[in-house]
Design a protein that fits this description.
This is WD repeat-containing protein 89. With about 400 residues, the chain is mainly beta. The chain contains 3 helices and 30 strands.
Amino acid sequence: MAKIVESLKRLSVEHSTHKHDESRVIKRKSELISSIEKAVSFDHNYILAVCGTQRQIFDPEFRIGAAFSDYTCVIYSVGESFNQTATLTHNEAPIVGIKFSPTSKNILYTATNNGEITACDLRAKGKVVAKFKDNTEDGKTKPLCSFDVSCDEKLVAGGTEHIAGDTFILFWDARHTSSKLDDRNNLLGGYWESHMEDVTSLAFHSSKQDVLASGSTDGLINVFDLTQPSEDSALTYSLNTESSVDRISWLSDDNLWCTTHNSLQLWNYDEVTPYAKFDRSDIAISQNDDPDDCYIVKFHASNALGQPFLLAGFSSVKGENLRCLNVVNNRLETYYNMTENKQIVRDSWLHEKSSSLVTVGEGGLINIWRPSETVSIEKNSSHKLVAKIGSGKVRDRQHRTKPY
């Protein structure tokens, strides 16, 4: 991961005042081809989120999970073919997050707005094997906006909406999976002083199981050391994005990426400002692009497609365009065009070993994209082309008594 950050910095993302050298600009207008396009949702259901398993060396397939607006989750197997393997119908509220276990491809976590996180075993037809919810004595549901699971799968964290003047980050012991699913003892506690509005994104560090980053509509990215005895001492960094945070994740030990509703920001949490920031006007790189019609999907920090990139969409009278943008000379350039896109994309996931980018969205479609030079095309039974997939600024906080 450190190589990713260094490569970005070498590409002059530190907002240098020097004019960029046009001779050094990398011009690459390759395409990602939709090697698989599958209409999997009907009755105007959106696909809200997607996750997947990184295929092991000897495993010929990988799995993806898709969360739908009708509260269901569907699991697919992707390899030489694309097959539905399970449908989970236990959710009773809108899904706010979906993630495979970091230690097992057979366990899928889902979080819903009614304050519940479940773990399902795909080997047992999606049976719910663990539940995580706030069962404190007041009995009031704390609606969730986000969740994550630590890299060692010992902790589950959930971020709540702003309710009755408070916003919570709740923690559960993921190892507490007794057969009594209504057991009240797996809630470990929570934080409630570090954010003032909805916690829209949580991200455990990829290798440090006790480090958690949170993002909120209050504009703050907070970094916590969970080994500390109190919330006040656990809050080690607070970064002010000056916008409403949508997603966050880690680039390296001390670097984060953040997408807000208007920008992409790259942060070193020792600094008071992002070392790179790109607004909607920077994303609208074509003469025909209107910044108001641009939207950010997700930043992918992996080098699986050659470089880290920002996936962004562009709505126009000609259709729903999609592009991968990378950083060149302190600005964004088109890295890959995706001309076959047919929907507003809500989420994406990258399978690194096969260089496959999965997108889902409001048209109920799952697309699997690969670089054009590596795609093998054939016709399926319906005569459609299908390809095989081989600020450091910390605000004042008032301490309040809570039941944790």
